Amino acid sequence: MNNFLDIIANDNHAFSAYLAQPKDKPKAGVVILQEIFGVNVHIQEVADLFAQNGYLAIAPSLFDRKERNVQLGYDKDGVAKGRELKDLVIMMPLKILKLQFQLFLQLEKLG
Description:
alpha+beta, four-stranded mixed β-sheet, Rossmann fold, single chain
């Protein structure tokens, strides 16, 4: 079953993530970080491919703090909007690692 779900951050902000689950027990889990285009069809397809190969895959919507459900195209407008959002949501590497760990803990509950 592949769908979007909400994940609650430590500050109670709810952001969405695309979850792709394998048919059988997962071999492992993988966190897929979006490009500047959000969790668009391409990122969902990447997650689905991992799930088809036995992995639990999640792609968090990192832009949700500024704009929910961002799914941009690969055209000039999409690049411009993605760069604008990226500049608003710049994260230090340690914050990303913390987010990945929080997602892992929440995925274990689903597991």
